Amino acid sequence: MSTPFSNVYSYFMPKIEDYNFLQLNKEDLEIILEPLLLTSIIKFKKCKKDLSKRDNVNKSFVEDLSDEETNILAQLMTVEYLTPKLLTADLVEQQVSTNEYKTYSQANHIKEIKSLRDMMQYEASKLITSYTYSENKMSDFR
Description:
By secondary structure, the chain is mostly helical. It has four helices and five strands; from the N terminus they run βααββαββα.
């Protein structure tokens, strides 16, 4: 069997809140999500499945991915999603909360995004470590 890219996207979408995605049709959304997935694949070096075997026409992996493998890819996608937000020149735009009339500093905003991205990266690393060692037996370490 195969695993459609859309399965990974369905794991990814609840991990983020981007209301801009709600305005997109399925095709436009996939145009945005596919590069995030492809860069995530590169970072999942310990995957027991060959993620390079893909059907790019049907947008699917040739091999059937487990829920755990799908979740790891989705977690890596969150890191890839947040990284450009740190590098965007438009980030220096200040935001004002209308309810509290507080101005948030640009530096704090960048710091919070970096902290969130680092937390997502740490979680992805933990998932990969757990995945890597989940099927190993103590006799494999000799």
